[in-house]
Structures are given as structure tokens and as C-alpha cells.
Design brief:
236 residues, mainly alpha, two-stranded antiparallel sheet, 9 helices, 67% helix, 3% strand, disordered N terminus
Length: 236
């Protein structure tokens, strides 16, 4: 199945799931941002169970086996790839300065940084940005909609969930023609990202009385801040 066809089917399936959730899942009514709380908590528990049994142990083994400099190089490589789509989204949001910085990062890190294994752009004053299509939609006035926990992907909103197939299709890893290489790259990136969050996830679980509520509130606040580029509500 082609990447484009897979993304199209994923979009249709996700949209159908969201409509089904809207029609059949009752909420607790405790938070207007989270009308699907019953469903979200169940999916959160499923994701956490999968993480505890599979993903987290693999990430811990990855940290134990792979030396720190190698993990840093792997993280830099995937970060450099991500800058390509970040640049596109910055241009779509009419932020040419940030988009041009992203392009410059890719060029410098891909050449002087040996295919992105070394981040030479940040020390040179080119900041790392994080932009995706959900943020682009938010920048153009598309409301986030209710909070939504997605299978495997975790915390999201209706807007960000529907934007994910676009991010998936535009991901440079998705353009790799060989399926084996493409899948290995996705798994390595997933494990590397999870390894970076080992300390933070443990802290959240230990400190929060209700980890689900902590995750929801933190995610919504962070996403709103990123859509507004750090501006506070009511700022000009």
C-alpha cells in the first residue's frame, strides 16, 4: 500500500472514530474541554499499559546498551529530518524568518553536521523550532476542539488528531521507498524519543495525584502556547 493511500485511509478511519466517539461516549461533565473523558481515560490506561509492558522497557534497554554520544547523534539525525516539515509549516503560518532559519539548519546540519548527526546550527545561533500541521491550522483560526487521547499517539485534540495524517504523509521518513528501512527508522525514532522522556514520565507518575488530568491540562496549555508562539491569552 502506498504512503499516500495509507494516510488517506488513516484520515478516514480517524474521522469515523471521532464521530463515533462524539455520538456514543458520554462525558463526566467535569471539564468542558474534555467531553470524552470516559473514553479518554480508558485509552490513556491502554496506552500506559502498553508503555509499561513494551515501550518503556525497550527504551530503558536502549539507554543501557547504546552509548550517550550515539543516542545524541541519533536524536540529532531525526531532529534534522523534522526541521524540513517544520520549515514548511512556518512558511504556511507566514513566518518567513523562522522558516528560513529552519532551512538554514537543515543545510548546515546535513553538510557540516554530517547528515544531521551533529547539531552545528544551534551553536551558530539558529534556534530549533517545533511546528506541525495542527499548529498551522490553529494559527489560521481552526479551534482545537475537545481533548482526545489517541491510541499509541497519546494526548491530542480533535484538530490535532485530524491533522496527524498530513504530518504522517509529509514526514520525510514516510518517503523512504524501502518498507523495511522505513519501518526500522520509525521504530528507532520512537524508542529514542521515549528514552528522552524516561525521567519526565517517572516524575509525572510520582508527583501527580491524577496523572491523566495532569497530562490533559499540561498538553492543552502547551499546545495553546505553541499555537500562539508563547503569547498569553489577550495579548496583542
Amino acid at each position: 500500500m502506498s504512503t499516500r493511500r495509507f494516510a488517506s485511509r488513516a484520515f478516514v478511519l480517524l474521522a469515523a472514530a471521532l464521530l463515533s466517539a462524539c455520538a456514543t461516549v458520554p462525558g463526566t461533565g467535569q471539564d468542558p474541554r474534555d467531553p470524552f473523558e470516559n473514553y479518554n481515560r480508558a485509552m490513556y490506561d491502554f496506552n500506559m499499559g502498553l508503555d509499561r509492558k513494551v515501550i518503556r522497557p525497550v527504551a530503558e534497554g536502549y539507554v543501557d546498551i547504546v552509548p550517550s554520544p550515539v543516542r545524541t547523534a541519533i536524536g540529532n539525525f531525526f531532529s534534522n529530518i523534522g526541521d524540513v516539515w517544520t520549515a514548511v509549516n512556518n512558511y504556511l503560518q507566514i513566518k518567513p524568518r523562522e522558516g528560513t532559519q529552519d532551512v538554514a539548519r537543515v543545510v548546515l546540519n546535513s553538510t557540516f553536521g554530517v547528515l544531521g548527526l551533529i547539531d552545528v546550527a544551534t551553536p551558530m545561533g539558529l534556534p530549533k523550532h517545533e511546528e506541525d500541521f495542527g499548529q498551522t491550522l490553529g494559527k489560521w483560526g481552526v479551534q482545537s476542539g475537545p481533548f482526545l487521547v489517541l491510541p499509541l499517539f497519546g494526548a491530542s485534540t480533535v484538530r490535532d488528531g485530524l491533522a496527524r495524517p498530513v504530518d504522517f504523509l509529509a514526514d520525510p521518513v514516510s518517503q523512504v521507498s524501502d518498507a523495511g528501512t522505513r519501518n526500522v527508522a520509525r521504530v528507532v525514532r520512537l524508542v529514542d524519543n521515549r528514552a528522552d522522556l524516561l525521567g519526565a514520565s517517572s516524575l509525572m507518575e510520582d508527583a501527580a495525584l491524577d496523572p491523566y488530568q495532569f497530562l490533559r491540562d499540561a498538553y492543552l496549555q502547551r499546545r495553546e502556547s505553541r499555537v500562539r508562539d508563547g503569547a498569553q491569552e489577550g495579548d496583542d
